[in-house]
Design goal:
Layout lengths: L2 E8 L5 E4 L7 E4 L2 H21 L15 E4 L2 H16 L3 H8 L3 H7 L8 H10 L10
Antiparallel strand pairs: 1-2, 1-4, 2-3
Helix pairs in contact: 2-5, 3-4
Organism: Pigmentiphaga daeguensis
InterPro entries: HicB-like (IPR031807), TA_system_antitoxin (IPR051404), TTHA1013/TTHA0281-like (IPR035069)
Protein name: Type II toxin-antitoxin system antitoxin HicB
Length: 139
């Protein structure tokens, strides 16, 4: 799974600024550390959606140190990020993937929607169509 580190920086007005070094578009604030941590997850998801919408490669997270604050993406979201990146690398458009998988475009749109709870098997099938496989590990 992908784990994105972030920093909490005290702001001049007493709030905490949340910054993700790997995803500069993911910015938020919080009045308390707890609120900042909650807002961090939402900010990261919103920024990743921007990458998806703009068909830009999603940056992979840098290595987290033990003391780093971080957001661990769920397995399904991680799989969708990896699928979207692989489509970009291979130059595969959604219409081409839909054709290869014998699916309709709305199904592919949902497959690449971070908020839609697609079946992991469908993401695996899409990756297979791209000559890749999803590998899950227990940590």
């Amino acid at each position: 799974m992908l784990k994105y580190p972030y920093t909490l920086i005290p702001d001049t007005n007493g709030t905490l600024l949340v910054q993700f070094p790997d995803v500069p578009e993911a910015l938020t604030v919080g009045d308390t550390p707890e609120e900042a941590r909650l807002n961090a997850k939402e900010a990261l998801e919103a920024a990743l959606e921007i990458y998806f919408d703009q068909k830009r490669p999603i940056p992979m997270p840098s290595i987290c140190r033990r003391e780093d604050e971080s957001i661990l993406l769920p397995a399904l979201v991680t799989a969708k990020v990896l699928l979207a990146n692989e489509m970009i690398v291979q130059g595969i458009r959604k219409t081409e993937l839909a054709h290869k998988m014998d699916m309709h475009m709305p199904q592919i749109d949902r497959l690449l929607d971070l908020r839609h709870s697609s079946k992991i098997e469908t993401v695996e099938a899409a990756l297979r169509q791209l000559g890749r496989r999803l590998d899950v590990q227990l940590a």
